[in-house]
Every structure is written in C-alpha cells, then in structure tokens.
Write a structure and sequence with these properties.
Helix content of chain B: 40-55%
CATH class of the largest domain in chain B: Mainly Alpha
Oligomer: heterodimer
CATH topology of chain A: Rossmann fold
Strand content of chain B: 15-25%
Strand order of the largest sheet of chain B: 1-4-5-8
Shape of chain A: globular
Radius of gyration of chain B: 21 Å
Radius of gyration of chain A: 22 Å
Number of strands of chain B: 10
Number of domains of chain B: 3
Number of helices of chain A: 6
Distance between the termini of chain B: 31 Å
Shape of chain B: globular
Chain lengths: 258, 385
C-alpha cells in the first residue's frame, strides 16, 4: 500500500500577526513555524496505518513552501514517514487553495497512492479546500473531518464529526482521500534518536514550476486585524436609574433580554 | 558565523518544549510540595523513551547521538517547566557520558542502554564527601584491592537521585600514598550491592522532587571488573566530565531564569496600579530589559561552550564561564521576577518563589561558582605566564 500525507508548515498560533507590506498576508519575519496541527493528526494516522500493515508499506510526506518547510517534513519523517517530498516554492503563501491542490494532484497523479491523508484545514489560511480539491482533481472518493479511522482489506471505516457533537460513519474503498480533525488521535512526540535518524531519509526536492500549471482562481484582497473595539461603557448615578439604563442597553444592543 | 540551530536541534527543542509544557509543568508545583515521587519517576520514564537520557550517546548504546548543543537546548526547555526533573536528566546524561568516555565496551553495554531506556530510573555521580566538596581530591572513601575484588569504605554526600539510581559512578582512593589527586580511581557500583547503603535524604531549599542523599559504603565488595578507566587515573576523569556537566547545569539555570522572567513579564502586562498596567512603569521595564539581556548573554555563552565541545575543541574555560554566568543571571532573573510580582511573588500561589528556590543551588552544585572563577582565571592566566 502506498500512502501520501500532505502537510503544511504554519506559524505558531500564539504569534503576533501583522499584515505584510502588500496587505494580503501576514509578515513572516521573526515568526516561529511548526507543523499544522491537523496535519499532525494526518501524519500520526498514516504512521499508525503503516504500523498496522507492516514495513512493506510506504508513507510519503509532502509539503509545499520555502526551505523552512523541510523542518516540518523532517518532523514527519521522525514520526515514522518513510520519505519526503519538498515542493520548493518561496511564494506558496500567494497561491490560492486551487493551485495548492493542483500542485499536490500533479505530483500524486501517476504515483498510484492508495490513500491520501490531509489535515481538515490549515491553522493559518483555514480554507479547508485543499484536501477535497485534490480528491476531486484525482477523481478519488473523499471523506472529511475524521475523528475515527479503521482500515481493513481495502475498506476505510471513517468516523466523522458533524455539528453539535453528532457523529457519522462512512465506509469508503481505497483509493481514497481523507481529511483529519482534532480528536482523531494524539500525535506522538518524535523520539530524539528518530529525529537524528530522519536525517538519513530521502527528501526529494521538486521546483514548483515542474508541477504547477494552474492560474489562481481566487485572490486575497486584504489581510487585517479586527477593528479595535471601543472602551467599555461606565454607568454612573443612582442604582434605580442605573438598572433602567442597563436594561435599556441590554435590550438595544444584545440578545439577552429579547 | 551562523547562530541558528540546525533543523534537528530545532525539532529536539520543540519536542522538549511541548513535552515539558504538557507533562512536566502541570505537576511541577505538586512535586515541589509533596514527598510523592510517583509523577517524577513516571515522567523520567517517558523522557527516557523519547531519548532524553543519552543525548550525546552513541546510537548503538541506545543514545540519540544528537550532540551537546541539542543537550543544552533540551535541558533549558525541561528546566523551564521543572528544575527537579531537569537536574535528574542532566546527571543521567553525565553518567552516560562518563561511562561512554572511559568505560570498557562491556561496561558501556551493561549500563548505558539501561539508563537511556529508562530501565534505570536514574544514575548517580558519587564524588562529593563531607570533607571534599570544592576540593574533591581530598576525598577519603577508600577502595582496597582484595584479590579478585575491591572493598569500598567511606561516605559520599549530596548524591543526586541516590534512592532510585540503578548504578553509581563512585570515586575512591586506591593509593593512599600517592600525591593528592593521583591515587583516585573510578568505579561502577550497582544499586543493591551489599554494603551500599542509601543514607538520609537532605531537606533542601529547592529542587524538592530530586532526591539528594548520603551514600555510605560499609565493606561494600565489588568485582574487579567494576573499575572504570585506569587505576589511579579517576580524578582526571572526574574533572573532565564535570566540565560537560556544567553545560547541563548552566542550561538548566537558564531555563529556570527564563521561566521566571516569562511569568513575571506577562504578569506586569496584566497587573494594574495607579490606574495603569505596571509594565508601563520604567522601573519594571528596566527589570525586563536587564533580566532578558543577561539571559540572552547566558544562552550565547552556553551555545558557544556546547558548540566547542561538540566540535572536539577545548571547552573547560567556556563551560565554566557559561555555568557561572548563566546560573548567576538566572538567580538575578528570579529575584527580579519575584520583585515584579510584589507580595504575590513571595506567596506559594505563584510559581516565582519556587523558581527562585530552584535556581539558588545552580550557583553551588556542579562546582561552586567560586570554583568556576578559579578555573576561568587559571585558564586565562596561563596565557600570560
């Protein structure tokens, strides 16, 4: 079985974000980057599947971006993926989800992957489009927001998270693509010996120009922080009048008393 | 000049940071205030499984072969969450390194994999005696050759991890008549050896979860094969290995100092007095600036010493400089942090008083900072003689 995991490197979400010069993305200088949280669930599930099936089965991890994304690829290799693919693109953040999906599909098209794992969405862009678009592009069945996964003899049984805590179960035959949600598993820490051994695993570098044929279909017009909220309202005066004022405000400006 | 960590070092730092935040920080205060070492031992086991007990140890012996820079950044991250756990990890690494440096292949295979895997919860470095602290060559513990074995008699003090150590590296006098420091040898003594007695545990100011005990040898008979390195050559080894340990302790101090400054700085952005956040006062801003600047200098000294060791260059002076400066910067940082919290800093409802207590010993153990200054000045004066 050939398995592909697609990962993205994103900024630490506790960072302070500020718009970049062109105002369509954030300034990357001085940010610390790490593997997208949802992609960690994808890597963990792919490695668990390999452990279930045995060493003859291979997990490839792919990431698109500048040189720094090699660190995320190496983490996935240290967690147990077998080989890495780095699609070199210093301007990946300017690509829209359609293009990112097209790059992945172009790489995967003739490789015969039986199963592709992606995160449900990225923590920074959050479009949740890439996984499903890759599936569409490759003509694969797809199921999303997995919180449970089992594989047996060519059939995936996927537990999906729906709104309000409702769960659904989907069965799908491979080849297929799945997107992974929080709660699917607890990703392992890469052990230190495995971090060092991952140095010896192959990381194939492919210039993005070799894979991308698609124009962007959407363009980010603006990236900006929310408008600053005004200060709170301080009410002063007699208690009786204060209560009336407060009730008035709650009726006018909130849904509390409707 | 390139001052970036490698990708592997960054991943090790990230693993240490995430593990420390998830597993160590939540139990650190509880460990500080209780006698139950269960959570400590459980976390040591997990750290061993991740490879933190043999960072600078060969792969075939169960180590991570990750180098000294990785060791330093890992120690700092662990210490940010729990100094007691960090000192145990530091000593375990040091014991592994001394066995790797001078042990026979058989000794390496017998003990290092057990420390690295966590089969031994810890390992101990038994050098100090009541009358031989800064001057270890003044030790009186003896090992007498008795045909096919050595017989140990004497008492060691301040031995980290003694109650749960699986093996002890023990220094003892093997030639009473030799000049000072020339008649000391190094031995590996397994826990449970008859005559090896774990004595009373010290009640310490800080680093409570890490046990510090007296260790007694009463006609403790060990096989000839327990001798590590050459007979009467042990003191030189001890001095050499302590230099590596100093990078660990300096890094530990840095971690505690950073934890204190991070906590206090965040606090000053939330605490208001005179109608404004106290971080807007210049008195506080100067503490923030001074504290972080000193810790950054400490980090660079540590990175330099670790890098030199990793490159096989001389590093004793640099390790002493880093240990001395980092642990003193950490103590100053902890006291600044405590001041920034005001009265709350002095209470046990906030972690800063614990950081201050935990940091204090780092200027004392692994060679007092006075001894570090002796080493540094001796190395410098050598060039002027």
């Amino acid at each position: 079985m050939k398995i592909l995991v697609c990962i993205k490197q994103v900024p630490d979400m506790e960072s302070r974000f500020k718009p970049n010069g062109s105002g369509v993305w954030f300034e990357e200088t001085d940010l610390a980057f790490r593997m997208n949280e949802y992609d960690e669930y994808a890597v963990e599930q792919a490695v668990r599947l390999k452990e279930q099936l045995g060493d003859a089965h291979e997990v490839t991890v792919l990431s698109i971006g500048p040189d720094r994304v090699v660190e995320a690829i190496k983490k996935a290799l240290a967690m147990g993926c077998d080989r890495g693919v780095h699609v070199q693109d210093p301007a990946a953040s300017l690509k829209d989800p359609w293009q990112i999906a097209a790059i992945i599909a172009a790489y995967a098209r003739d490789k015969g992957f039986d199963l592709i794992f992606t995160g449900m969405q990225s923590q920074d862009r959050g479009s949740a489009q890439v996984g499903v678009t890759v599936a569409e592009d490759l003509g694969l069945p797809c199921t999303t927001t997995l919180v449970g996964f089992a594989y047996d003899n060519g059939t995936i049984t996927a537990k999906r998270e729906l709104e309000g805590g409702v769960k659904g179960v989907v069965r799908v035959k491979t080849p297929a693509l799945v997107t992974c949600q929080l709660g699917l598993n607890v990703p392992r820490y890469p052990t230190l010996p495995n971090i060092m051994k991952a140095k010896k695993k192959e990381i194939e570098a492919i210039p993005v120009g070799d894979l991308l044929r698609e124009e962007a279909r959407t363009a980010t017009a603006s990236f900006h922080p929310p408008a600053k909220k005004g200060g709170g309202i301080v009410l002063e005066g007699e208690v009786g009048a204060l209560v009336d004022q407060l009730v008035g405000i709650l009726k006018d400006k909130t849904a509390v008393l409707r | 000049m390139f001052l970036e960590l490698t990708e592997e070092q960054k991943l090790i730092q990230e693993t240490a940071r995430e593990f420390a935040a998830a597993e160590l920080a939540p139990v650190a205060a509880e460990l500080d205030g209780s006698d139950d070492r269960g959570p400590l031992l459980a976390n040591l086991k997990k750290l061993a499984e991740l490879g933190f007990m043999g960072l600078n140890i060969r792969e075939d012996l169960g180590g991570a072969a990750a180098g000294t820079v990785a060791f330093s950044v890992a120690m700092t991250e662990i210490a940010r969450a729990c100094a007691s756990t960090a000192v145990t990890v530091s000593v375990n690494n040091m014991v592994c390194e001394v066995i790797q440096a001078i042990g026979s292949e058989e000794q390496k295979r017998a003990y290092i994999p057990k420390i690295c895997s966590g089969e031994f919860a810890a390992a101990s470095f038994a050098l100090t005696e009541t009358g031989a602290g800064s001057d270890p060559s003044g030790m009186t513990t003896q090992a007498v050759d008795d045909g096919d074995s050595f017989v140990l008699n004497g008492a060691k003090i301040f031995i980290t991890s003694a109650p749960y150590a699986g093996v002890f590296v023990v220094w003892a006098v093997t030639d009473k008549d030799a000049p000072k420091g020339k008649g000391i040898s190094c031995f590996l003594v397994e826990a449970g050896t008859p005559g090896l007695v774990i004595g009373k545990e010290e009640k310490k100011m800080g680093q409570h979860a890490s046990a510090t005990n007296e260790v007694l040898f009463a006609d403790c008979r060990i096989p000839k094969s327990a001798l590590m390195g050459r007979l009467n050559d042990g003191f030189r080894t001890a001095v050499g290995e302590l230099a590596g340990g100093r990078i660990g302790i300096g890094s530990l101090g840095l971690g505690v100092g950073l934890a204190a400054m991070d906590y206090a700085t965040k606090y000053t952005t939330e605490r208001a007095q005179f109608g404004q956040k106290i971080s807007t006062f210049q008195a506080i801003q100067w503490m923030i600036a001074d504290g972080y600047t000193e810790l950054e200098a400490a980090r660079l000294l540590l990175m330099n010493a670790a890098f030199r060791k990793e490159q096989g260059k001389s590093f004793a002076k640099e390790a002493s400089m880093a240990k001395m400066f980092a642990t003193e910067a950490a103590n100053r940082a902890c006291y600044k942090a405590l001041q920034m919290l005001g009265g709350y800093g002095y209470t046990r409802d906030f972690p800063v008083e614990r950081y201050a207590r935990d940091a204090r010993i780092t200027a004392i153990y692994e060679g007092t900072n006075e001894i570090q200054r002796v080493i540094i000045s001796r190395e410098i004066l050598r060039n002027f003689a």
